[in-house]
């Protein structure tokens, strides 16, 4: 049975004075079946973070418009989008005297293939039904502590340095990128990209329930509502993009008008 895409991007300012996140699901302008989802979480004082995140989105959109899948790899698109954004954000320091940075997570969907890359602590989750298949591992200080066995995942949730990043776009050092992809795509799969203003309030099992049991739009609404409730007036910007793969029933062909089936011999 054919598979269709049910997708939605959403965000909320939370309790911050400014929305410094950016999120979008961008279709390829010439190639059917190709789309790029992007979440960027900007940092760097008033307007600086928003400008950095906007640069990530702008660069991703421009590179997608010129992406030729026959000649270029998904990783080429993802890495160049983030690397070019890093260069532009870093250059903007000299123009606006701010300290802009941004995370980035991107998912490129092509027929039969999903590829993603990221820098920082904005995440991608891949579920099959309610089962988590994979999630990105944050480029953060606490994820490093978890990976080296110094703290548990539960301790990471309340660690005082949980927001300290090891890398980001726009910093003085060269950014660190991570990439992965899968060709094992099925109806019932769902992907979620989100900023830390979302994932900080959910465990993986609950997130799977919300994604599997709702349309993309309804899942976004419920996730934002729950995150806002749990933030209790102290919430960060919230941004997410949900992409669900769903079966589409093909209508049976109707016989032409006036057609009368003949009996067997």
UniProtKB/TrEMBL annotation:
SMART domains named in the record: PP2C_SIG, PP2Cc
Pfam families: PP2C_2
The organism's taxonomic lineage, starting at the top: Bacteria, Pseudomonadati, Pseudomonadota, Betaproteobacteria, Rhodocyclales
Source superkingdom: Bacteria
Domain annotation PPM-type phosphatase: ranges: 6-245
PROSITE patterns in alphabetical order: PPM_2
Source organism (scientific name): Azonexus fungiphilus
Protein name: Serine/threonine protein phosphatase PrpC
Classification via Gene3D superfamilies: PPM-type phosphatase domain
